[in-house]
Amino acid sequence: MNRLDFLKEQCTDKKHYPLLLAACRAALTGGFILRDLYGKPHTITMKGEINLVTEADVASETAIVASLQEDAPDIDVMAEESAGEDLKVPAGKLWVIDPLDGTTNFAHGFPIFAVSIALMENGQTTIGAVYCPLQDELFCCWQGGGSWLNGEKIQVTKTDFLVQALVATGFPYDIHAKLDAVISQMRAILPKVRDIRRAGAAAVDLAYVACGRLDGFYEMDLKPWDTAAGWLLVEEAGGRVTDFAGKKYSPFYPEILAANSALHPLLVKQLA
């Protein structure tokens, strides 16, 4: 049985199905490349003092874009390694791609990283796919269709007290310039929750909120490809996604707070 056969069974929307299939097929394609290159010597270049790019980022992106252009040739692409710095909210349809979310983890042999692919339409994500190749976990979602992990429907947690919550965060690449803000956020959140995790891959963190492994996630200074797919995963799994102040979220705004509906306002209060 083809591992994507469940999509046809669960997604009966004729508009969404072919594009959902395209996103998942591309995510698997990129993920297989990452899995093959994992643990081998890497060619590393630097985009910043601590911001890495490996040959795997480039190879995965090339394969993903080729796959999407084969399945959906009329849709433009915004991919991390080729997007440049002028990032604007898209009009119409746009694939937003992170070919390797968690590059630092990948380069160090730390086994938490993913491919993230979102289809955005006029600034709203309508389809998302996040694939964790070492765990062979494919998360996917479509607008109005719920969120899924390897063919099983997933939901956020029902945790309603901060002291019971496991929350994730991440740190910006320009940590030296943002250190005071990061420490202030940690000081506000850490004493109130059960614990904090910092896995180093925002797409994975959001997928883990969607499937209930985490109760919440917050981070600043992210890029659209880090969160575009995970945003919809969390919302379709019953969670809430906003900025730190609880206002409407966009992947083109550089802060995100995701949690179940009970914890979300409590985390907003702490971050305020």
- Helicity, in percent? 25-40%
Major sheet: order of its strands? 3-4-5-6-7-8-9
CATH superfamily of the largest domain: Fructose-1,6-Bisphosphatase, subunit A, domain 1
Strand content: 25-35%
The tally of beta strands, per DSSP, is: 14
Overall SS class:
alpha+beta
Under the CATH scheme, the architecture of the largest domain is 2-Layer Sandwich
Q: SSE string, helix = H, strand = E?
A: HHEEHEEHEEEEEEHEHEHEEH
CATH topology of the largest domain: Fructose-1,6-Bisphosphatase, Chain A, domain 1
Mean pLDDT over the residues = 94
Distance between the termini: 49 Å
Could you name the CATH class of the largest domain? Alpha Beta
Largest sheet: 7 strands, mixed
Helix-strand layout with pairing:
Elements: H1 5-10, H2 17-37, E1 44-46, E2 52-54, H3 55-71, E3 76-79, E4 93-101, H4 103-108, E5 114-121, E6 124-132, E7 137-142, E8 147-149, E9 152-154, E10 166-169, H5 175-189, E11 195-197, H6 202-210, E12 216-220, H7 224-236, E13 240-242, E14 255-259, H8 264-271
Q: Can you describe this structure?
A:
- The protein has about 270 residues and is α+β, with helices and mostly antiparallel strands.
- The chain folds into two domains: about 5-155, Fructose-1,6-Bisphosphatase, Chain A, domain 1 (2-Layer Sandwich); about 160-270, D-Maltodextrin-Binding Protein, domain 2 (3-Layer(aba) Sandwich).
- Helix content is about 35%, strand content about 25%.
- A seven-stranded mixed beta sheet has the order 3-4-5-6-7-8-9. A five-stranded mixed beta sheet has the order 11-10-12-14-13, with helices on both faces.
- A hairpin with a 5-residue loop joins strand 1 (about 45) and strand 2.
- The N and C termini lie far apart (about 50 Å).
